[in-house]
Fold this protein.
Amino acid sequence: MQWGFNGPITPNTPTFAIIYTIAMAKDLLLITPPFTQLNTPYPATAYLKGFLNTKNISNFQLDLGIEVILRLFSKDGLQNIFDHAHSNKTISTDNSLRIYALKDHYIRTIDAVILFLQGHNPTLARQICTFNFLPQASRFDQLEDLEWAFGSMGNQDMAKHLATLYLEDLSDFIVECIDENFGFSRYAERLGRSANSFNELHTHLQGKTTYIDQLTLELLDHSIKKAQPKLVCFSVPFPGNLYSAFRSAQHLKDKYPDIKIAMGGGFPNTELRSVSDTRVFDYFDYITLDDGELPMELLAHHCTNPIADDNNVQLKRTFLLKDGAAFYNNLCSRQDYKQSELGTPSYTDLPLNHYISVIEIANPMHSLWSDGRWNKLTMAHGCYWGKCTFCDISLDYIKVYEPIAAKLLVDRMEELMEETGESGFHFVDEAAPPALMRALALEIINRGITVSWWTNIRFEKSFGIDLCKLLKASGCIAVSGGLEVASDRLLQLIKKGVSVEQVARVTRNFTEAGILVHCYLMYGYPTQTVQETIDSLEMVRQMFQAGILQSGFWHQFALTAHSPVGRNPDDYHIIPDYQPITFANNDIQFKDTTGIDHEQFQFGLKKSIYNYMHGICLDFPLQEWFDFKVPNTTISPNFIENALNEPPLLTTKPNAKILWLGGQPMVTTIKKSKKGQGWEMLKLRFHDIADSTTATLDKQEGEWLVAILNKLSIHPRTTLTYAQLKTDFESHFQNFELFWYSKPVQIIRAQGLLTL
């Protein structure tokens, strides 16, 4: 059953007045606690719901985060916030005083702005962009040149950016005056980070509920009363969801003691594998690890049909309290389901048209994480590479690699498009396999469907320009991948399997194909020197300067318990500070034997890339980004340029597939003559979406090529191997290589004659 609301959404509909109903009781209630994303649901509950539907287990899913946000950021919600702050006398800073002074402007505009960010009030963009409509506080102080960033006609995106600053001002007010733990994509995150002991979180939970807690619990009560579940399952992906999950579970235990409560998701999968503190089970009856489908199915059957002897129930990868101690129940011998057996994720129940698109900075790649609604799918479970030394490769979500057939993937895409009305897809793979991406692209093209999609990759050398063009033709708009430390020595130590030169060429190929590229960057990896940090920044600067990177993000290396570095710290010359583990076990504090304070580079690295993403300050000396002395770079100023000037490859594997994505050419026979001798040539004119191109060939060879292009254009599109093409050509002519690498054929290949 789906959410319903009283009446249509219009620009005059108060967001707080949208009242949701659940048609009938459900056995399971799947909840994502506050907060994850504003623009799209976190997909874990949708994955579980899709699976549970195949087992006829009644369930309902709820994104508590978006519900709380919509309650907060409404006319009544803001009025309550301002009244609460005033009555508690917490308004003290210049910024909060300014916002409070403008409270009537905020209250008057909030519902219209939220509706605009939900996509229901697009005409408001022009008014937002007049600069005298939205009240402005400190977030507007650093306002960039918006006409430069968005162009004179980019009203919708510019308005989203301004409305985002407006919401961030209100968020600052909430943090300063209402609840210091508030954040749009996290709540009380500090309590979930490196929480080796449960003491601090437990103590916090004994205190009074916060303003945000009260809103959360009120909305939770509403859903519990409607769904009447026997089992409530909290999916906790990040540390910033943990506190709200525990606070909600505490409330359920107190008010609905007959309901069983479970927790699963990314946080317990990585952090709670060694949980032993029995107080945790005062809040949760069960904690499941790794893939949740089979554990959830077994729990559902157990909680809806409990057996008399609870101690002998056979569960899968599930912690529970037994005989006064934490017990890991993995007694069920059943194997996990194959990826093909899990069903299509389902977003039914979630208020998809109420999510809020925001644009934090004027960068098209960066905005993908916060702007627009994306259906989430996975091409392959786990990582096909599985070697990076900083990664949790010992855990199942990385080490168990299982791809999904391209035809089944596109079946699921079409199902989700029918269910959600959205044709945008984010494949949330650890690293999407290039061969499967190719197969997926071909399947999308063969079915003739129009989609937009993006995913995470490794910068494999197999991403040649032709594969990138194929991906673009199928609807791929962006990729993100890890360059990590742009140093070949450290990339080898990381076992990344790439070099800086290779990454540069791959990002160039994606960029030339029209696909945006985001790089994850790292500093502070064990044994990294100051010189390597500065040289890594220079590599990144050159890549932005060359126009082959559109976005990036620096993060400091974190030592995790389940990574090769965490398991073998001596090999990486670090000294871990191990603590007794009774609760969470993932992040480990450590000392780097180099003695370098890597944190000092944080501000400069992030400031530099913020500017690079805006296309500015690329000629600044690297010293400009730091308020302390750093060494000059040892990297040649032409390093990336030289890496990109690779000679063309004039060899092709015999089994390489040849595919034609263009249309049929207009063919004209022309006559040539020289020194009294005449001959006929074939002029081929190709029209693509934006332009037209001509190529002139020998008539007989041209006629052969036109016939081949016609054969390759038959729908669904067929492919030939390079060897088949060569054999066919040389049955009529001589020296296929001379023909294939000739200038006219290179022109045609650029029009969509791909070698894959």
About this structure: The two ends are 45 Å apart (CA to CA). The longest helix spans residues 155-177. Confidence is low (pLDDT under 50) at residues 1-20.
